[in-house]
Amino acid sequence: MTELDVVVVTFDTRDVTLSCLEHLTAAAGLRAIVVDNGSTDGTAEAIAQRFPQATVVRLEEGVGFAEACNRGAAAGDAPLVLFLNSDVLARPGAIDALAGALEARPDAVAAGGRLVDPGTDDTQPAYAPQPFPGLGTLVARVTGLEALRATSPDPALLAERGTVECDQPAGACILVRRAVFDAIGGFDEHYWFWYEDVDLARRLRARGPLLHVGGAVFEHLGGGTFASWGREQGLRSRLHGIVRYASVHLPRRDRALLGLALAASGALRFLAFRLLRRRALADAWREGARAGLGLVRRAALSARPGASR
Length: 309
Prior knowledge:
Largest sheet: 9 strands, mixed
Order of helices and strands: EHEHEHEEHEHHEEHHEHHH
Strand content: 15-25%
Radius of gyration: 20 Å
Oligomer: single chain
Helix content: 40-55%
Distance between the termini: 43 Å
């Protein structure tokens, strides 16, 4: 197998991260790089004791997930880099299958594995390959209408055991060619959490095909860093990611429409949560409404002669 670096970002998920690293020891020719993103639960010490061969990049203060991934990638030099969530366990042969898929397709720039429920072979639909989100998807997400949309992953991809091209493989375990990753500047550090993987996939896709490798099976435990987040913290990060993604990847008209939808939805929810005296959520939605108006203004500015898209 081609030598590769495995970058795992962790924040107060010591036990889960140790399990993740334990499942990596069966694979040969790889180096584990753990970015301890400001943990306070003794993660770095536990890793040093149990896995002294692993490289630990210890950050005293937490940074966004995108920046943490870049810090981890910079600590290695292998031609392939696997970004693996700390709550994902590699089954025997899974990493070899990802690397083999890229070796078989020199034109491909990245490959993602198939995430399954622990102890089963059942693919997790939420982590199946997805198309890049467009205006309709993003409007549904900022207005709360997403739950009403009858969308589901392609059943053929859910059952796929071979290798197929896709827009966006599972970001929780994606193997990329370092040369391409470096050429596009790595993860966009303007993101905090959410949508940094979608953005990366879009920029990688401009350089070559992305693959979903059905035979590369990883168990996704869940309960990682995000599980400890409060509703308000998760909301702020999600809306921030959507606005950043839209600013970069949507055309002017779609940015404006999404901004209007976010501004209206944010204002209504701000008022609702104020009446319910849930100040933190009210403040988060007020910020979301302002961000929506910002999208509208930037779209209007970009419509001026000589302005970029």
